[in-house]
Amino acid sequence: MAGAACPLHRPWSAEQHLPSTIVRRTGVGGTGIGYADELRHVDRRRGVLWTRQAVARGSGTPFLAGVHPLRQRQAMSHMLCQVCGQSTFDSAFRRWGERHLFVARAPKGKPLGESEVTTTPPICLPCARESVGACPHLRKGWTAALAELVQPWGVAGLGYGEKTLKPLPLSETGLHTVPIDHPRERWTLAMRDVVTLHGVTPVDLGTVA
């Protein structure tokens, strides 16, 4: 399946990050970063500045290690399958007692737990079954779970220094994660939506149907 080879939220080579100049900006909520040519209704969500990246899915070659910020955010907001992009409010969702399926990397075998914080969107069952065999990252180890409730938690992205307006060093775990309404939100260039999973039940993809 082409979808499994390149999930919805993976970027393509034609989808380059757009040039932009970060400036200090003061608004109703206080001071933080902004774009010199900012379009608030496009560049911000819930007051948080988002990275700019071209949208040209299918053009060029896929970058399987990356994540397209807009499509990841849309998948999280609307509970779209991370592979095929279809709604996960499907027949399986109803059959599972109105729960969404999540599959994540687990090289050490750690299952998804209650109140898990994740940037990984949900997935439909057919795509999940194919992905665990086709995706190089998941072949190293994966875990699956059903979640009753998915709640917004915050964003993950690049943190900027309040004095220097330069990106802060990344930690060993990658992007900086910042919860909703935290003071550092205004100094973060968001690249991923982050959610928490509740009512989590680990499942076996072979028997969950």
Q: Keyphrases for this structure?
A:
two-stranded antiparallel sheet; 209 residues; disordered N terminus; single chain; alpha+beta; 9 strands
Radius of gyration: 18 Å
Poorly predicted residue ranges: 1-5
Mean pLDDT: 90
Which structural class do you get from the secondary structure elements?
Answer: alpha+beta
Number of DSSP strands? 9
Termini separation (Å)? 20 Å
Tell me the helix content.
Answer: 10-25%
Approximately what portion of the residues adopt beta-strand conformation?
A: 25-35%
Shape type: globular
What would you call the quaternary organization? Answer: single chain
Description:
- This protein has 209 residues and is an alpha+beta fold.
- Helix content is 16%, strand content 30%.
- It has helices spanning 2-5, 40-43, 69-78, 91-95, 125-134, and strands spanning 22-27, 30-35, 44-45, 48-49, 100-105, 116-118, 142-159, 176-179, 188-202.
- Strands 5, 6, 7, 8 and 9 form a five-stranded antiparallel sheet that branches. The protein has a two-stranded antiparallel sheet with strand order 1-2. Strands 3-4 form a two-stranded antiparallel sheet.
- A hairpin with a 2-residue loop joins strand 1 (22-27) and strand 2 (30-35).
- The longest helix is centred in the middle third of the chain and has 10 residues, at 69-78.
- It is globular and about 55 Å long.
- The relative contact order is 0.20.
